[in-house]
Amino acid sequence: MMVIDEQVLADILGLMSQLAGDWEYSGAIGPETRLLGDLGMESLDLVVLGTMIQHRYGRLPFAEYLAEIGQRPVEERDVTVGELVAYVCHHRGRTMAGGPR
Amino acid sequence: MTSKALCLGLDGATFSILDPLMARGVMPFLRDFIKRGVRAPLTSVMPPLTPPGWTSLMTGKRPGQHGVFDFFQKESLEGEYFHFASSQDIQSATIWSLASDHGRRVTALNFPLMFPPPDVNGSVVPGGWMPWRQLRLGCHPPGLFDRLKALPTFDARELALDMALEAKAIEGCADEEYADWIALHIRREQRWFDILRYLMREEPADLIGIVFDGVDKLQHLCWRFLDPSCQPAEPSPWEQEITALCESYFRQLDQILAEIVALAGPDTTVVMASDHGFGPSSDVFYLNTWLEQQGYLTWAEDSNVQHQETPLVGFGQMTRHIFQLDWERTIAYAATPSSQGIHIVTRRPGSDQVMAPETYLTIRSDLADALREVRHPETGRRLVNGVWTREEVFSGPQQALAPDLSIMLEDGAAISILRSETFVQHRDVPKGNHRWEGIFVAGGPGIRSGAAVDELSIVDVAPLLLYSLDLPIPVDMSGRVPHEVLSSGELERRPPQSMAGSVPVVSPDREPVEAIYDAESEATILKRLRALGYVE
């Protein structure tokens, strides 16, 4: 079972809520919220969000993660906030050398 | 009085377009400013591309020193994955950080590679591939985005990047979309200027820079409407309309430049520069298709030939090559069209088998020779006019992350990394593509008047800006203070100061292979190369 750091979850939820306010997205944002399907993000948004997340949490194999998402069937090509948080928690500080990017 | 400097970036600007516009009275301010100042061709770096070009301007260093080679950066020396290039990839001080470190205030608007924003003394709104939905994250200091959001003309969606619109510049759009697309860029430059005007009035800075990137976008898509030599003898009403709209863009840009220079005041040294030049482009070289035909690359079984209508790689496809190639049978590939580079597979993905150095050097040398001999299948003329190894073109502490080979094509032909039935395709109408020769214009205190000088390098801009601010110039900058643009006696009156450079973060070169390159691995690699017909 994936262990989720509540602080990371709170940070990323806060980040997404702050950004979504600029998009005039009025719905609630929680772990089940889909970044593309619900928030209307595009693929480059995910790439840049990954840059900011690595800036905060250190280097992650984000390119591989994006590649894996890109290979999914079109209807499954999305990420929930909870999945993103789980990915960060799982890989943080364990997979790549180097500090924050 | 504290000295001030202003850097006006015109992305991709070239005198071959600007000179006729000035001559026709479309850009009277620029024409008169040049008469009062200095102009020169400005040579960009390899590749002549926005991220390495502007980074070289901001650092005074070449890509092998600052570490930015493309829109995407290699994740690791041997790996096949790339990440989105960001400010974290710049392994050098910049004019912004250097001025800040000396207590000077800076404003940097719409420069690429400024995300995440550097912690400078002043204001940053990043440009480049900064999506509008996350522009807030790119603004520095905290609170700046909300202040800008309160401006009446602020519109993040039009200010920052919209990928669908960006794609049109590269991949083209329907005729009926041109007018709206150009109008958007006219509005967009105005929005950037509104932000700059607000900051110049409310939060004055000593070093101010802004990039207007609509120049690049219009030249990509609308080259045939901008280049007088491409104009038809009897243009259609639609062609006349688009040509007039393009002129409107440059007329407005000229007015914006005039207002900024007036706001900066007569005591400010003004430098206008482009990150690269531009020229017409009619051919597309399908580099990976050519590599396949030469036996260096094998497509994955499920990769498809691309439709001709979209010959250039789209956005959001930075990992396309991962799945399009058969990594068991590929030894060289191009990962992006923009880098103009070829990577040699020295370690097969998922394997610890590393190519021996002598094998690598042989493959690279043979591949370079083959590239030099590529001929256009229809005209027979040479297609590649320059091939360089990374040591030749990217010498420096970051060279290990650069492509193994870099190429420049004849006549500014574009590169595609997609699969095609033929390795060259011809466009029906010319588009604009990057060239090395950009523009340099300067004026103000200490700058010569009415002079046209020989070409300068883009790495000379940072030393000149620091010199104009009376700040010391790091000794590790590649560029120099271009004395030929300065007024007589200026250097004697105010000699440049120097300071120690920063200790470079060296990207280690490929790991020693002895520890893992055993006889079995060697046999496997040779078998793979033999299967490709590469070795006997």
Summarize the structure.
The complex is a heterodimer of chains A (101) and B (536). With 101 residues, chain A is an all-alpha fold.
Helix content of chain B: 25-40%
Based on helices, strands and strand pairing, what is the structural class of chain A? mainly alpha
Mean pLDDT of chain B: 89
- Helix and strand composition category of chain B: alpha/beta
Mean pLDDT level of chain A: 84
Shape of chain B: globular
Number of beta strands of chain B: 20
What's the number of extended β-strand segments of chain A?
Answer: 0
End-to-end gap of chain B: 73 Å
Plain-language structure description:
The complex is a heterodimer of chains A (101) and B (536). Helix content of chain A is 52%, strand content 0%. Chain A is mostly helical. Chain A is globular, with a radius of gyration of 13 Å. Chain B is built from 19 helices and 20 strands. In chain B, strand 10 and strand 11 (341-344) form a beta hairpin. Residues 307-316, 511-518 and 531-536 of chain B have low confidence and may be disordered. The A-B interface holds A 15, 18-19, 22-23, 40-45, 47-52, 55, 61-64, 66-67, 70-71, 100-101 and B 75, 81-84, 86, 88-89, 115-116, 129-131, 133-137, 145, 149, 156, 161, 163, 315-319, 322-323.
